[in-house]
Specification:
Order of helices and strands: HHEHHEEEEHEHEEEEEEHEHEHHHHH
Strand content: 15-25%
Structural class: alpha+beta
Number of helices: 13
Helix content: 40-55%
Radius of gyration: 33 Å
Oligomer: single chain
Length: 412
């Protein structure tokens, strides 16, 4: 142990004596580790953001729409089939006939996405989305009320002129004002603000916070149209099987659409977990790509570290000869150079982790992802830097230990 401590001190002293080379070597390794940590951190932040966004829908929710998510993504495809809209009578019939235990069904439709909202002498740009919905819409869609309250069944059944607004209204129309109980005007109709939604951010480029939710029947009267397409959102109890609930809903909707057994569904059925799984598959591809990029970068760092240590061995040939002539064993010489490589590798890993986390936080903030401490990336970086040091330091250490002391003493 005493010999081990002495040998380690000699290795650390050699590192201090070659400070510039050490710093440059550390930075070479740090760059590789930083690249690995940054990419893994951003991917983790993206995954966390997607899970947070879609988990807000609830793990036990599904929706019935004109098209499913995959069809909307491929809406310009030649194979895209045209589904009929979900009409109001069909939607009402579904609510009446779908009697799955502990299920809550909401009915809604997007009345317009180009509305103008007025408050006293102020008005918004014509970019507000108006949603007609019932009292189950907010909980079924995972929307939380920051202030005030949600609709009640009494509000919906009695067509009360009340509304729930998105959080962005506090940055514009109601800046520095409490919007609760204020009166806003939409298409000449006056609505009392009873609730303010928590911020949701943007989904696929569309702001979720510039919208006003009003009772369903009032929305139908203000925004009448012959082909209104309705959405049905169903939330079931967490202890209930989602598969069975979806199967029952599909069967109910097929009966309403009068489809025979051989006909395909002419409506979309979206499960919240299907959307999450679909997006997670894409994120996994990014994660694999991140590892490939990181491994290539770290491989370059390993080669650089090994080259620098080989140069160090060549420059210190006479030192090695003197130590061997004084009785140093081969394993002692090998351990000295191996310790130097190990310390430099771990310093590079530590600096790379710090820089990687800071850069990852910056990218996540700029991209509006939810940053989390990337423990997985930190562990991967520590392990990688250790492997780099082991691989890069082994050959130079063995080469140094095998030098002939007589030939080493002759070296100038």
């Amino acid at each position: 142990m005493k010999l081990f401590k002495e040998n380690t001190k000699i290795a650390l002293s050699a590192i201090r004596n070659q400070l510039l080379r050490t710093v440059l070597t550390v930075m070479i390794i740090a760059i590789g580790i930083t690249a690995l940590v940054v990419v893994l951190t951003v991917v983790s932040a993206l995954k966390n953001t997607l899970l947070s966004d879609f988990a807000s829908m609830g793990a036990h929710t599904f929706s019935i729409q004109q098209y499913d998510f995959s069809a909307q993504v491929n809406q310009n495809s030649d194979e895209q089939k045209i589904n009929p809209i979900i009409s109001y009578p069909q939607a009402k019939e579904f609510i009446e006939k779908y009697n799955y235990p502990l299920a809550s069904t909401s009915l809604s439709f997007t009345a317009t996405s180009t509305a103008e909202v007025k408050y006293e002498n102020e008005k918004t740009n014509p970019e507000i989305t108006i949603v007609g919905a019932d009292e189950n819409f907010a909980p079924n869609k995972g929307l939380q009320i920051a202030e005030g309250r949600n609709f009640t069944n009494f509000d919906v059944e009695n067509n009360n002129f009340v509304c729930v607004i998105g959080s962005d209204f506090t940055k514009g129309l109601f800046e520095n004002l409490n919007p609760i109980n204020k009166i806003i005007t939409i298409r000449g109709a006056k609505f009392k603000v009873i609730g303010l939604l928590k911020e949701k951010g943007s989904t696929f480029g569309n702001s979720q916070d510039l919208r006003v939710i009003i009772p369903l029947q009032i929305a139908r009267s203000l925004f009448s149209s012959p082909n209104i397409n309705y959405d049905l959102n169903v939330m079931i109890d967490k202890n209930t099987s989602l598969d069975e609930a979806v199967d029952a809903a599909t069967l109910t909707m097929r009966r309403i659409r009068k489809l025979n057994p051989v006909q395909e569904n002419n409506f979309g059925m979206e499960r919240s977990d299907d959307l999450i799984n679909m997006l997670m598959e894409d994120v996994e591809v990014l994660e694999i790509s991140a590892w490939v990029i990181g491994v290539i970068t770290v491989l370059g760092s390993s080669i650089a570290l090994m080259n620098i240590m080989l140069v160090s061995v060549s420059e210190r040939t006479r030192e090695i000869g003197i130590r061997k002539s004084l009785g140093a064993k081969r394993k002692t010489i090998a351990w000295q150079f191996f310790t130097e490589t190990l310390v430099i590798g771990q310093l590079g890993g530590l600096v790379g982790i710090i820089l990687g986390i800071l850069a990852g936080f910056g990218f996540a903030t700029a991209l509006k992802f939810q940053f989390v401490i990337p423990w997985y990336a930190i562990f991967a970086a520590l392990t990688t830097s250790l492997i780099v040091a082991l691989v890069s330091g082994l050959y130079p250490a063995i080469k140094a230990s095998k030098l002939d002391p007589i030939e080493a003493l002759r070296h100038e």
